[in-house]
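Sequence and fold:
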Amino acid sequence: MNCLFSWSRIGAVMAKEFIQMRRDRLTFAMIIGIPIVQLTLFGYAINTDPKQLPTAAIVADHGPISRAILAGLEISDYFDFGAGTRTEAEARSMLARGEVSYVVTIPVNFERKLVRGEKPQILIEADATDPAATSNALGSINEIVRRAVANEAGGTLAELEPGGMPVDVVLHRLYNPEGITAYNIVPGLLGVILTMTTILMTALALTREVERGTIENLMAMPARPFEIMVGKIVPYIGFGFVQVGIILIAANILFSVPMEGSLTVLLTATVLFIAANVTLGYTISTLARSQMQAMQMTFFFFLPSILLSGFMFPFRGMPGWAQVIGEAIPLTHFLRIVRGVMLKGGGFADVAPNVWPLMVFWLAVGTIAMLRYRRTLD
């Protein structure tokens, strides 16, 4: 009579599972790789206090105090004047396209008014679509300007009371003046949800056929690999647009997120973004041997996408190597497009720098999918 509990039988089952895990190299790689990726990203790439943010200057008074203020802002490490001195039109255009985070304007006769005690103004315009990325820098501007003016002016402003502010620093938080977090998060969720659902559902397309044994019927059809791929991914593009409609309606009704730009521009870019995602999912389905592996590979791609795209943490706060990886992720460019259209009123010309990377990614993964597809079972 067999006993109710046997360590030997449990040991046999455990040995069998370890052998299976050893044979399933992809799962084993995920077990090791995901913790390493998470530790690396959270430990080195994530920074909630971004520094060296690109800044353009409009300087109409080139006196020593003006130069001291610009130098003080740059020494603070929050501002990087690599964009140089621009005309007003150039600076505004760069701010709208997201090429700079700030525009600093020093008006005509600034130094003369300062010496006369008229308390001249300095205008600081900030891209506030992501309040977390600019809040720390904006909070330090008054003190930076006060010290720069005091150090450069010397005895000229000696009559000021200690800690007095000789300059009126005017802050304009553009595109999201009230700093409403939902204005930044909700448009970003459009890209995050599309990334998660369209890639996963398409990644299961071929692997489901393999596990159910219907792949032979699919391969017996007189359809070319390209035709099969298109037939597989187009329904999921339509499914993605259903999600787009739900999210945009909810964004407007529930969260009052504005739509400053053209809906046509946004939907055109969304078609390309969804196509890139579903094609990536199809590529994953040609690599995975089971639906479990397809889900694991999808999650492995989704993790850096959500962390390195600028959705959760400021993109410019990340180190250079992390930004390089982020630039290769479709979600990074789509977030810039959707926020640029909805919050900034951007047109085709404004979003074009983020459209062509989506197109390159789509063509690359589509080529890989075509090369990976097999007309016969291995």
